[in-house]
Amino acid sequence: MTNDTVIVPASIPEYNTAKRVPTYLFTIETKGNKKDIHFIAVKYDQAVHAANVVGFFTEAEEAEIVARYDEIIRATDKASFVEMQFPWARILHIRSLLYRHK
Predict the structure, then answer these.
(1) Per-residue pLDDT, 35
(2) What is the Cα–Cα distance from 89 to 93, expressed in whole angstroms?
(3) Residue 78, C-beta contacts closer than 8 angstroms, at least 6 positions apart
(4) CB atoms < 10 A from the CB of 8, how many?
(5) 39 within 8 A of 53, measured Cβ to Cβ
(6) Cβ burial 52-91 (10 Å sphere, 16+ → b, else e)
(7) pTM summary value
(8) φ and ψ at residue 77, rounded to 5 degrees
(9) Which CA distances in Å does 27 have to 8, 9, 10, 14, 59?
(10) Which of 9, 13, 50, 95 makes an SS bond possible with 85, Cβ 3.0 to 4.6 Å?
């Protein structure tokens, strides 16, 4: 005798267990007529005279970074990630890439 009964749980929601890492876009001032530098940070600590960050430099435009930052992070080689300290005087602005106004 065979048993053809299958028991399936009734509508258990699937939760996204992936941890959302706070991600920030730093715009760093350059000297001269050069274009400002963009740095995507996946770790950010504040110190008295500088921002301690872990992430990578990118040449993408700010609008593109904001729209596709998660894809950019996944596509970036892990060897490109560096730990940096930026003095507060050279940081033009810091933008949270996770924040979305509703």
Answers:
(1) 85
(2) 10
(3) none
(4) 6
(5) yes
(6) ebebbebeeeeeebeeebeebbeeeeeeeeeebebeeebb
(7) 0.75
(8) -65, 135
(9) 51, 49, 49, 37, 11
(10) 50
94, 63 Cβ separation under 8 angstroms:
no
Amino acid at the residue 87: P
Q: Is the pLDDT of residue 53 over 60?
A: yes
Q: How far apart are CA 9 and CA 17, in angstroms?
A: 19
- What CA–CA distance (Å, rounded) separates 42 from 6? 45
Residue pointed to by tokens 């992070």? 73
> How many helices (DSSP H) and strands (DSSP E) are in the chain?
1, 5
